[in-house]
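S.,

As promised, the adenosine monophosphate run. Input:
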Amino acid sequence: MKTIDNFNFAGKKALIRVDFNVPLDENFNVTDNTRIEAAKPTISKILNDGGIAVLMSHLGRPKGERNDKYSLRHIVPEVEKVLGKKVIFVDDCVGEVAEKAVAAAPAGSIVLLENLRFYSQEEKGDEGFSKELAKLGDIYVNDAFGTAHRAHASTTIVAKFFGANKCFGYLLAKEIESIEKVMKTGEKPVTAILGGSKVSSKITIIENILDKVNHLIIGGGMAYTFAKAQGGKIGNSICEDDKLDLALDILAKAKAKGVEVHLPIDVVAADDFNNDANTQVVPVTDVPDGWEGLDAGPKTLENIKSVLLASKTILWNGPVGVFEMPNFAKGTIAVGDFVAEATKKGAFSLVGGGDSVAAVKQFGFENKVSYVSTGGGAMLESLEGLVLPGIAAIYE
Ligand code: AMP
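Predicted complex:
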């Protein structure tokens, strides 16, 4: 894997695709600077070498038109604060203004270009636009995992204009390594714990990981489709009735591949989809009429704990209950504790894709697991076994 460590950036302009698509409040203050922090090691290495860091990103969805609401100008103070250095902001991302600003930038400086998505050519992956972008750097660095699953101009197409002068930044390299640690080189036993609401949104991931894992723990809303498919009574619990055969098919495939599947044993059922609803613990296959399962029960958690603590590699995607409601977040918090404990014992743990990241951050497990992915959709596509265009473009 070619990373920025393979280059000396002294006297070179690095065109870096970062993901500075950060949330802003109504006064345009950055409310979460995680993504800026995440790009810092890459930018620092380039500046320390004596190079120029030319940063490009999108922000929001301006749909191919200039719109001050989405100007990256708003985030300049936060970028300067995080990087501890002045930023030269350029009002455009291509053309004469951008070319002049980059040419005039002294060694060791940071240039931030205006929002790439002010041009519709960005999302279309337009060649001409990519070529214009390529004029702004000697070496192309991709450090934006969150957009690596998109074949956009700045994430993918631009790479072809750099010959061998292209590489991954530290953040993207770490994402790739973490996924490989689970999917290719993971120490056994490898366990995937999948939750979330629907089987349909996770089916491709399940099919792909059946070849990589020893244990598959199924939790959350998804589990009820499996419970019903096996003849269980699930009351009002969330269920995809058109996926019952698929659920049985998955269980059969897992058995044939020697993967041990762990479905919930008991669940916390509620008489309403409401934090203050009445609750009772019932078997997953015997949820009373008018009740719905909203969290993992104690026996289920006991089983999850023993599987996770015996695992050497763990992938966690999706909450095991409706964690947005405090009374049904307990199972997800417990799973976080088990993953943290397994990690402390030496397991490698990767948390990624959509809501599991939100849950991990909300409950403070971020620093207790091995790696929390920065890309929702990109992570899901990686787990589905797809080769992301932004990653392929660096290898080509
Ligand atoms: P996903 O985006 O597929 O990972 O699903 C995450 C969502 O699944 C969260 O918003 C959870 O509230 C929801 N979820 C988890 N368990 C359940 C459940 N038992 N019933 C309904 N929704 C659930």
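Residues 195-198, 201, 220-221, 238, 293-294, 318-319, 321-324, 354-355 surround adenosine monophosphate (CB under 6 Å). The mean pLDDT is 96.

- D.
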